[in-house]
């Protein structure tokens, strides 16, 4: 079994192309959970759809393996999220007739008690707020501030300019701030 | 209008005063979030597809790939001797088509014929054009 400390994702993908079945298991463990989490946020919390997207994206990665350029700019993980992002956008477009770049109306402030939130509740609040964003804004914000991609990487993945990326992220963050503002105190504690 | 400085990921304070610290803290929670383990059935489906794709790679390698398939077709057609014969026939046909009849005398003379001796060997077609 390949040593996980030794083999990069690129090396594992090459081993997969050469017939190493253990490489597939290791890559799945490394890449698929993050892809499910990303796709779940993109699909506004629909985990079942997110798992379908992840399965499809992983299938495309397997098929890409013989042609994979280990010296290229893309890493398997970023390539996978790029494909998953596109698959999510396609599904969202099929499910909605709205212009995906249109500004969404801010959600009503969450009703209920102002109980102190634990980390899971902060996460839940963030995910709910992300779901109110237009799809492309949500994708850009998640890639930037949760997945940690740089703006040029996001621009490449979304096939837009860096300036357009910054614009999407800026608008997305302003919308998130507006949605989360009523719960700012709770989300800032702890 | 002054051009905005290019931002390649650095935090900028929000104009509404809430600041990036607020959102930054929320995003940090998401970044620290340990991803839930993969559902067993999803993992099984992903690995089953991986095995199927890998089996395809193995079949491709066993058959030698695309180049080997073309080589088998080539061998079935007869290989280079066939191509040589086809090329020769093509050149000969082209020459026959463009060469003048007298130039062929050297060819027919080898079998005892000339263009003149051939003249009387063909029927007189005038009869076909007589009015009936």
The quaternary organization reads as: heterodimer
Q: Name the chain pair whose interface involves the most residues.
A: A-B, 45 and 35 residues
Mean pLDDT of chain B: 69
Shape of chain A: elongated
Number of helices of chain B: 7
Classify the helix fraction of chain A into a percent range.
Answer: 55-70%
Q: Considering DSSP H and I runs of 4 or more, what fraction of the residues of chain B is helical?
A: 55-70%
Largest sheet of chain B: none
- Write the element-wise H/E pattern of chain B from the N-terminal end onward: HHHHHHH
In terms of DSSP E residues, the strand content of chain B is under 5%
Number of helices of chain A: 9
Shape of chain B: elongated
**What's the main sheet of chain A like?**
none
Rounded to the nearest angstrom, the distance between the terminal CA atoms of chain A is: 42 Å
Q: Helices and strands of chain A, in N-to-C order?
A: HHHHHHHHH
Q: Uncertain segments of chain A of ≥5 residues (pLDDT<50)?
A: 103-117
Structural class of chain B: mainly alpha
Strand content of chain A: under 5%
